[in-house]
Design a protein that fits this description.
The complex is a heterodimer of chains A (about 140) and B (about 110). Chain A has about 140 residues and is of the alpha+beta class. Chain A contains five helices and five strands. In chain A, β2 and β3 form a beta hairpin. Classes of the chains: A alpha+beta (about 140), B alpha/beta (about 110). Bound molecules: adenosine-5'-triphosphate and magnesium ion.
Chain lengths: ~140, ~110
């Protein structure tokens, strides 16, 4: 099954809608609650990163029998130093983003902790692509 | 501790899912930063926060959090209530500070996550 969602940078009212849809789909597919939580926490962190740090993005979700694969592609400023961005506590979040409840510098480490495979690629001034996979069976 | 009892302890006003007040809470985590909340793995969890916006409710939805306690007299919007009702999340408004609410719940047996 394949699903696609659009994400608008700066829109903190709608942030999380794609993650919410995916959560409902996984529930319908009877995926275990523990695995659903891992997938949607990672997806939500990725979705909020587009809202918080980029201009716009798309989320591509592929659900196979044994795994879910997610690609988050955005048009935005990109990440100059990915290794640094991955460090717990590192954040360049603006005051507005912090007011919205984000900017702990925990999103990317959270994604890493909740997924089986994760990859980030980014071109400064162009955008960022985050890919991850989670096995759907324990 | 039952959510209803907990709401009483913090002089709280329940604004969503009044039918779920007999659910049990074992742990609580207090933060205004949602990614901190999203690191918590515990079940039967209460989120205590001063952040009264849609993302607090979204965070609870993603993390399977049963209830949110909004401290410092923060008022919950209609949109937040709708989202919470859709997802079975109890929202409680309290006039107390985060410190006071946390202290009361801690001394009455609600456990920290670490
Ligand atoms: N899609 C993105 N586009 C541009 N920069 C990004 C993107 N995602 C992450 N970053 C950069 O990496 C940093 C770390 O991201 P991370 O998600 O770990 O923390 P945060 O978003 O700042 O705060 P938190 O996720 O805890 O709310 C960000 O502050 C930002 O500089
Ligand atoms: Mg983030």
């Amino acid at each position: 099954m394949h699903f696609e969602y659009r994400v608008q940078g700066g829109d903190f009212v709608r942030a999380g809608q794609a993650s919410s849809q995916v959560k409902k789909i996984l529930k319908q597919l009877n995926v275990s609650p523990g695995i659903i939580k891992r997938v949607v926490v990672a997806l939500y962190e990725g979705e909020v990163n587009i809202v918080a740090h980029a201009f716009q993005g798309k989320i591509y979700v592929d659900i196979e029998t044994n795994k879910i694969r997610v690609v988050l592609d955005d048009v935005g400023p990109g990440i100059p130093d990915i290794e640094m961005a991955m460090r717990p506590g590192f954040s360049t979040a603006s005051p507005i983003v912090r007011e919205m409840g984000f900017g702990a510098g925990m999103g990317l480490p959270n994604i890493k902790a909740n997924t089986d495979k994760m990859k980030i690629s980014s071109v400064v001034g162009v955008g960022t692509r985050l890919e991850f996979e989670v096995a759907l069976k324990e | 501790m039952k959510i209803g009892e907990l709401a009483g302890l913090v002089n709280g006003n329940v604004v969503s899912c009044h039918d779920k007040l007999d659910r049990d809470i074992e742990y609580a985590f207090a933060s205004d930063l949602m990614s901190d909340v999203l690191t918590v793995r515990a079940d039967k969890l209460l989120m205590i926060t001063g952040l009264a916006n849609m993302q607090a409710v979204r965070t609870a939805e993603m993390a399977d959090i049963q209830a949110i306690l909004f401290v410092r007299n923060k008022t919950v919007s209609e949109d937040m209530i709708r989202l919470a009702e859709d997802n079975g999340i109890v929202l409680i408004e309290s006039p107390y500070t985060m410190f006071r609410a946390s202290g009361l719940l801690y001394s009455n047996g609600v456990k920290p996550v670490y």
